[in-house]
Design a protein that fits this description.
heterodimer, A: about 350 residues, B: about 550 residues, mainly beta, 6 helices, globular
Chain lengths: ~350, ~550
């Protein structure tokens, strides 16, 4: 692509006849994939005519092709001195500088030609994280689903997040948010006692902060301290009665403790707040089944199957329905659901939770 | 003059009594056994699996004796054919005879049980009187070959494996005697874990460098031996239909779950679905775990089935199933609904909150407080000795779980054990004959733990010894009901272990009992007005 641009641009250029001859020879060598000859000819062209921008651009391009990025920088810089608007030279020098670690220097060149992906990388390397996220987001709009761009966007976002948290911890170490951030970090590392302590510290400072009880509940749930988890989820539900996740978590915690009668209204409430969430529906079916409300169990599990089709939740719902129908004496339906369960299960390999 | 007890004092005492540990952790006087599992950096999977405990009265003196299975020596250079140096006394299985004063004496060598064979890494033990001579025989399982020891009745045993034809092979784990065809002779069932040997071992976990999960190795079949009655057994694994189902079996428990008069088999499999082999009554079995509802969790997921028990926890007269598993799962309790159907009952029974962070192995449903409800006891400890590095919220060594049964719902209680251990097997029995069920736990790399029931309280009890005449002499397979409670007569269950074959019933406040026995022969026997607080021997009537 760059070579095509070069050819187009060269059409309008002029220089000494000796320089032009070497330039032409260099272009012929490029066509013949003789890269060392190409470099030698372009170098001679620049020596014959030190003001011939196209010779310097081509020399830089040849070095780039040979992956000698450091060697490419000087001729490309000279080209831009001679012709500051030259887009190809900006693009090439931007890449060359970036590859050599001169990210800050590369940025204006990459900005000028709109090379968003390379620009984003340069911005990450110069810790311009907000700008990097913008660059990758814009690049993704042009190339949706590109794996490299998705990776870099995630990477930049993560660094930005870390940067913000580091700043928070450095500037407001005793704030509720700082404790919350530390707690979340410990939670990810599965260091539950430390996570619990930090969440409790955060709650002591700002007991009304949304989400804290929910997160602390998760810490307790992860350590199988279900009564404590239940208490935290209840507190979150009281603070945010419109939060579907809090209601779902509370329902699940109650279910885990065998309190299906109490779980059922919470799961119903969660489903009303945020309808058709498969996890909520599945648990709702489970709670309904445990309290003997076969109609609700059947309805919700059928809904899960309709939404999920081939996932493990759908398989679980078929399994639940099979048990339900078996209890109701509907043998044929039970067998059909069990067959569906087995069919789906075949595609989901068994795991051991270690 | 002593101060008068006030109502407040009484409430305080009551609270203290309620919180008191169930057991006293007692040193086993005269027992110097260490379970040698020999962990190595090569993480041979067998290292983390032993060892069995049997509580049985080998010399018929009325006192329970203790048999302890040992692993063997493993070195990093272990290759096929493996040598576990079982001839070295350090690696012997051990039999300890109980003395009248409660101490124990090592009688291993005199009993002829010393060397279990260098190629055999020890696992579990089963006890049963397979020749109906009134003496309890021993069957020990191994990675390698299994051994049947005939009890000669004079304090010695004879290795009769070759004649009996029950050596098995591969990796055997739990075993149990039962009479599947009701011919009055005990047959033998053996679980096998997987197709494994030292040359095909794997290490998993990447940088964590740890034991592999079971699905890293091929599945295999269990073994069923039919007792011909002449001291020999026939391998009927194929003929019975059991060979059709390969699995990764660890535990086994027996009960007639559908009341058709034939003993069925529950097998706990690791990392997959569980098996329930229905006894068709014609010498064949049909696996019906899925249809009956015991194959998966309530969410239709396979589980890490380890130990199993098949007894009636809610006093409805039907045997229920309980399976111990690894953390992030829940010990699975399946309530027998009748009609051959089970319902997952872990959550309602309170096990969801209690067991999701623990690794369970040996398990029992025994009435420790004699209140008439079977309580739950589980020997616990993770498979991976470095699990704490992998998941900081889990522990390799754990305290055992005891949960008291309050009319079908379990509540956590204090076992009295304060030091976590890597427990594996646990066997139950009334070791000191005081009317309260005790337990012995095996621990990897350590001595066994004796948990002596503190007893106390005003509850009554009844302990029944069965003597079959038309049925097998041990009465295994009998269904015994006492004041509305039911026990299936068996010494099998748990993990790798064999329990006291006497049937223990807590009677609560009742001073009298009605005992109803349905013998495997089909004979029904009823004993009325039986006095509580006694060891009752019941002989099966010769004629109906």
């Amino acid at each position: 692509m760059i070579h095509l641009l070069l050819f187009a641009w060269l059409a309008g250029q002029a220089g000494t006849s000796d320089a032009m001859q070497h330039l032409q020879a260099g272009l012929e060598a490029r066509k013949a994939h003789q890269i060392d000859v190409e470099i030698a000819e372009f170098r001679k062209a620049t020596e014959s005519d030190p003001n011939m921008a196209d010779a310097f651009v081509n020399l830089g391009s040849a070095y780039m092709e040979k992956r000698e990025y450091g060697a490419a920088i000087a001729p490309l810089k000279r080209a831009l001195e001679l012709s500051p608007e030259l887009p190809v030279a900006h693009q090439l020098i931007g890449f060359a500088l970036l590859s050599q670690g001169y990210s800050a220097e590369a940025i204006p060149h990459l900005q000028r030609v709109g090379a968003l992906d390379a620009l984003g990388i340069a911005q990450i390397e110069t810790n311009q994280l907000t700008e990097a996220v913008s660059s990758f987001t814009a690049a993704l709009a042009q190339r949706p689903g590109d794996p490299d761009l998705l990776y870099y966007l995630g990477h930049a976002s993560g660094l930005l997040s870390k940067d913000a948290i580091d700043t928070l911890l450095a500037t407001h170490p005793d704030s509720a948010r700082a404790h919350q951030a530390l707690a979340e970090n410990y939670f990810v590392l599965r260091q539950m006692p430390q996570a619990e302590k930090e969440f409790l510290d955060a709650l002591r400072l700002r007991p009304e902060l949304p989400g804290l009880h929910l997160e602390l509940g998760q810490v307790y749930a992860n350590s199988a301290q279900w009564p404590k988890a239940e208490a935290e989820y209840r507190a979150e539900c009281k603070l945010r009665p419109g939060n579907a996740e809090a209601a779902y978590r509370l329902g699940a915690a109650l279910l885990q403790q065998g309190k299906a009668h109490e779980a059922l209204p919470e799961l119903k409430r969660s489903n009303e707040l945020k309808p058709e969430m498969p996890e909520t529906l599945y648990s709702l079916g489970k709670a309904a089944s445990l309290v003997g409300d076969g109609a609700t169990a059947e309805k919700t599990w059928l809904k899960v199957i309709e939404i999920e089709k081939n996932t493990s939740l759908a398989a679980q719902s078929h399994f639940g329905l099979a048990g339900l129908y078996r209890k109701q004496g509907k043998t044929a339906q039970a067998q059909r659901e069990m067959q569906e369960f087995q069919k789906l299960q075949g595609a989901i390999s068994p795991t051991r939770s270690e | 003059m002593p101060r008068r007890t006030t109502r407040r004092d009484f409430l305080n005492y009551a609270a203290l009594a309620a919180a008191a540990p169930i057991f006293e952790v007692k040193p086993l006087r005269g027992i110097d056994f260490l379970l040698q599992n020999s962990p190595t950096p090569r993480k041979f999977l067998i290292e983390t699996m032993p060892g069995g405990v049997a509580l049985f009265d080998y010399n018929n003196d009325g006192l329970l004796d203790i048999f302890l299975m040992n692993g063997g020596r493993i070195t990093e250079g272990l290759h096929v054919p493996e040598n576990f140096e079982r001839g070295n006394p350090r690696y012997w299985n051990r039999l300890y005879r109980q003395n009248r004063d409660g101490s124990f004496q090592d009688v291993t060598q005199a009993a002829g049980l010393a060397n279990a064979g260098n190629g055999n890494y020890g696992m579990g033990v089963a006890v049963g009187d397979y020749d109906n001579d009134g003496n309890s025989d021993l069957y020990v399982t191994s990675y390698g070959k299994n051994i049947l020891y005939h009890n000669n009745g004079d304090g010695t045993f004879t290795d009769v494996t070759a004649k009996a034809g029950v050596a098995g092979g591969g990796w055997s784990v739990s075993a149990g005697f039962f009479d599947y065809d009701n011919d009055g002779k005990l047959d033998l069932f053996v679980t096998r874990y997987m197709d494994w040997d030292a040359d095909h071992n794997k290490i998993c976990g990447g940088d964590w460098h740890t034991y592999c999960p079971p699905n890293a190795f091929p599945a295999t079949t269990c073994l069923l031996y039919h007792n011909r009655g002449d001291g020999t057994f026939e391998d009927v694994t194929e003929k019975s239909g059991l060979a059709a189902k390969k699995g990764r079996a660890l535990g086994v428990a027996f009960a007639d779950y559908d009341g058709d008069g034939f003993t069925d088999i529950f097998v706990s499999n690791d990392g997959m679905q569980q098996y329930l082999f229905h006894n068709n009554g014609d010498g064949t079995f049909t696996e019906c775990g899925l249809e009956s509802g015991v194959a998966f969790t309530v969410d239709g997921k396979g589980m890490s089935g380890m130990g199993a028990v098949f007894q009636d926890y809610d006093n409805d007269g039907r045997p229920d199933v309980l399976v111990t598993v690894l953390p992030r799962e829940i010990y699975s309790l399946y309530h027998n609904e009748g009609g051959g159907s089970f319902n997952y009952a872990s959550l309602e029974a309170g096990l969801g909150a209690m067991t999701s962070m623990s690794s369970g192995w040996g398990v029992g449903l025994e009435d420790f407080d004699n209140d008439g409800w079977k309580d739950l006891f589980v020997a616990q400890g993770h498979v991976l000795d470095n699990v704490q590095d992998i998941d900081a919220s889990l522990r390799y060594k754990e305290l055992p779980l005891i949960a008291l049964n309050h009319k079908g719902r379990f509540e956590h209680a204090d076992s009295g054990v304060t030091k976590p251990v890597a427990a594996r097997g646990v066997a139950f029995g009334d070791i000191n004959n005081d009317g309260f069920v005790d337990a012995v736990i095996s621990c990897l790399g350590g001595p066994p733990i004796l948990l002596l029931n503190r007893g106390g309280g005003d509850n009554h009890w009844l302990s029944i010894s069965l003597q079959g005449t038309r049925s097998n002499r041990d009465g295994y397979g009998a269904r015994v009901s006492v004041n509305g409670q039911t026990r299936m007569a068996t010494s099998a269950g748990s993990y790798l272990c064999s329990n006291d074959k006497r049937l223990h019933f807590g009677l609560g406040a009742a001073e009298k009992a009605t005992v109803e026995i349905l013998w495997p022969s089909g004979m029904k026997q009823v004993l009325n007005d039986v006095r509580a607080d006694q060891f009752l021997a019941v002989r099966e009537p010769e004629r109906s």
